[in-house]
Design brief:
The chain has 189 residues and is α/β, with parallel strands linked by helices. The chain has one domain (9-90, 102-188): Phosphoglycerate mutase-like (Rossmann fold). The chain has helices at 37-47, 59-68, 104-109, 118-133, 143-154, 157-160; strands at residues 9-14, 53-55, 75-76, 137-141, 170-177, 180-188. It has a six-stranded mixed sheet with strand order 3-2-4-1-5-6, sandwiched between helices.
């Protein structure tokens, strides 16, 4: 196989490190650090040349896609945005509230003031991810979007929160039929 997304396959890439200045930036539109040319080249090699390329509308995703495949046009899809953290957007990480020992299920349902929960993110992105997988697609998006795809395959938002998703990592899922998925690889760097 040449690395291209086959029919029914989602190739998900988390954007390059976000230049967030130590602040939470879910929906906040910040740039990406694209200075590591070797990491970008390695990620593009692991992902293969996209048959179809989409991104979240976030600048960090669009710029990462352009750096990975210069000259290849990417469409953007608003359904792939990161989780909306509401009033927590832009808050320094050190000042975010301690949620205590929430179970994975409770954490998936926790909604920041004025924002959406991870379960909300999963419900918002699942139809898009299922639709996009039908033709095979490479998506440059966010850690939350990648976890939402894993939740779709696992049938559980809570279980998907157990996955770490590094910047410039590649995750591959294949839709077999209906709601049946295979997780081919996760967080490959």
């Amino acid at each position: 196989m040449d690395g291209r997304a086959a029919t029914g396959e989602l190739v998900l890439i988390r954007h390059a490190p976000a230049l967030h200045g130590g602040r939470l930036a879910g929906r906040t539109d910040v740039a990406a650090d694209l200075s590591d040319a070797a990491a970008l080249t390695a990620t593009a090699g692991r992902a293969g040349v996209p048959v179809r390329l989409l991104t979240s509308p976030a600048r960090r995703c669009r710029d990462t896609a352009s750096a990975l495949w210069p000259g290849l046009a990417a469409g953007d899809d608003a359904r792939l945005w990161e989780q909306d953290f509401g009033q927590w957007e832009g808050v320094p990480f050190a000042d975010l509230p301690d949620l205590g020992p929430l179970s994975p299920g409770a954490l998936a349902l926790h909604r920041p003031p004025g924002g959406e929960s991870f379960a909300d993110l999963c419900a918002r992105t699942a139809p898009a991810l299922a639709e996009l997988a039908d033709g095979g697609v490479t998506i440059v998006a966010h850690a939350g979007t990648v976890r939402a795809a894993l939740a779709l395959a696992l049938g559980s938002p809570a279980a998907a929160l157990a996955f770490e998703v590094q910047p410039l990592s590649v995750t591959r899922l294949r839709r077999l039929s209906g709601d049946n998925w295979v997780i081919r690889s996760v967080n490959v760097t």
